[in-house]
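To assess whether ligand presence alters the predicted conformation, the chain was also submitted together with adenosine monophosphate. Input:
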Amino acid sequence: MSKNKKVLVSGIQPSGTLHIGNYFGAMKRFVELQEEYESYISIVNYHALTSVLEQGTLAENTKNAIIDHLAIGLKPDTLFLQSDIPEVTELAWIFNNLVTVPYLSRAVAYKEKVERGLEATVGLFDYPVLMAAYILIMDADIVPVGQDQKQHVEIARDIAEKFNNRYGELFTLPNAHILKDVAVVPGIDGEKMSKSYGNTIPLFAKDDEIEKLVMKIVTDSKGEKEKKDPATDTVFALHVLFSAEELEDIRERYKNGQIGYKESKEILIKNIKTFIAPLRTEREKIARENKNILETIQQGRERAQKRAREKMKKVREVIGITF
Ligand code: AMP
Ligand code: TRP
């Protein structure tokens, strides 16, 4: 890897089946940017532990998430499991002593998760600190994420500044990298698409599943010949991602009352199917050919471990743990 490449770091929780919101909000960019940046992409299983407590489910989701990332074209040597870098959890403890409870109490993701019924564990509360530890231990320059993670990256930046002020310049200040158009991909109910809202279209969905889910997308009740607003319609928001060539035509037909939601959904189904089919084939091939998926990403693990170990050695020195 070239020394002067900037460093890209990101992660995805293995907390359920990955969906098109994850893909367009984050995963797609991992692939697009992997040559331009020195990239580290982690399946963050210790993060998922804040919401997935069933052992079999966590293991299964983790395995699937690795295969999913390889299937979209991520190079195996950029991928690793968070739990293979224990230095991350070690660093999180150190950061816990820099961050105050009132400061962390302002994190909106925590409040939202608790409002939705997740137990208010210390782990859930401390989630942003673990995330900061992972981002900072890798010395990330950019962190590609969806809009919902912007605050978490800012917290990482604050922690880096606080640490640097106290102990000397050690950590790079990271920047979130968010694409406007796909900052929030809506789910079939019009809310943010999310594994925990039951409103997703899985990234590797089968054809019949795609049909069923798209037909369920909630729209207003305007009739076929009525003028429709593309800016507020969920079906149209998904056309933006899947129907590039027809987009302007569909937009005009919306505005002029020349298309019904049924036809709009049928076009969307056709385009999502065309998009997903080759990904699904690739995924099946990788699953078939890589019986031991952890072996496939061994290089990714070793690369990340080396980087984290070197950084952690310096951290222990500057805080006075090793002498
Ligand atoms: P998570 O599923 O929470 O681990 O999210 C993994 C990545 O996907 C993060 O960068 C999120 O910001 C992004 N993401 C998740 N849901 C969406 C969505 N509906 N729209 C855009 N990005 C998303
Ligand atoms: N919190 C992120 C999410 O829910 C996942 C994540 C954990 C992450 N650690 C990260 C993303 C570090 C980017 C960088 O989507």
